[in-house]
Amino acid sequence: MVYAVVRAGGRQEKVQVGTIVVLDRQSAKVGDKIELPAVLFVDGDAVTTDADKLAKVKVTAEVVGEERGPKIIIQKFKNKTGYKKRQGHRQDLTRVKITGIK
To answer: Which domain holds residue 20?
Structure first.
């Protein structure tokens, strides 16, 4: 079993070939190929965490689509002052499919 843990937008994701992962917005367009940096690489029983060896590991992915996350409501309220504030946020996301780990 071959898999890797990649760094993607402040988080780490465990990926295998064929896995579809949702990441923070990438600058690539739909259909483009991107490369993700590996933090850990497992090839059968061999586990690689050495930075020099991980520099040679290539995790490639293809951008499948762009989407937006769920709406998050931010509310602030201060008692007895009449202060209240309501704000919404939706994160921009990119869906990618892992095409190769070498």
So the answer is: 2-101
